Amino acid sequence: ELEHYFKDYLENAVTELNQDLGEDKYTYDSLIAALKLNYDGYSFDRRCRHHVYNPWSILNFLKKPQEGFLPYWLDTGGAKPSLLVNYLNTFIDKKVKKTELVDYLNLEFVKRTNTAALSPTLTDIEDENFPFFAILYQAGYFTIKKTEPDFLFVGLPNQEVKKAFAELVIEKLTNKDAIAVNDVYKDKISAALNNKDYTALKEEFNKILNEFSYESVVSFKEYAFRDVYKVMLQILGYNTYTEYQTALGRSDLCFEDEDRLYICEFKVIGKADSVKDKLEEAKAQIKEKRYGIRLTDKEVITLAIVIVNENASDKQKPMREVAAVKQVN
Length: 329
Prior knowledge:
InterPro entries: PDDEXK_9. The protein has helices at residues 2-21, 28-39, 55-63, 72-75, 82-91, 98-104, 115-118, 132-138, 159-174, 178-194, 198-209, 214-217, 222-235, 275-289, and strands at residues 111-113, 143-148, 151-155, 239-246, 249-256, 260-269, 299-310, 319-328.
């Protein structure tokens, strides 16, 4: 229906975007793909046969396409319903683990459930068994992704909602909102990447790690550190992907801007004296799996990252740091 009723607007959007970028980056088909990625994916029927766009976001995009694919849902106030915020304020770390919030921040993540579990009565919210994912579904963060007999699978519908949820997660993990995060890190990380100054990038990554309390990271596994950086980079405006599938394996983290695609392999160790060995292991894996070979016009940069997560005897001062960030040629 979008293409049937708004084809002229869509063709105009292609022209406006390419004029603003100064290059013919978008075709009609690639624009449709970008709209699907950012604003589509909502499904409410039991068999998950039909998907719909966020109408508010589509209308705003078509009105000002030259501004790009902005997260218009955030501007409506609907991204932070009081029910969800109050639930997190009350039950964070009691019924909802902070690491669980990070797990949900993946467009490929799905939670298996059923119709009854998605629609409990709101008077049950104080019950310790009230499912967190049901609130996410009712608040518009989760949608039906696929179905099986007797089961539904719910998760984030698109990039716009992913960004909104990322901001909420960061606030709960660091007590800073997205504006504060951008003010502190955006320019410095952008400069480090543009200058290929990976010593400076390591320093900024360490500052990010120190934003989180000991309680937030004490039980972190390798994937959790990876996902923390995914969330922060998402907040800073990068497109992010975890466990991106390649022909020979899955890279830990990918993020990209307009010009470059960064592919990262993380290694987490318990003692600082094995940093060199783990760095070499990460480099070898990147080369063996050929992570740097991608069908893209962007410059591809592969990075090996080693994190030390050693629990100190003093629980208030655990040793956790990004010990190495190296480009792999």
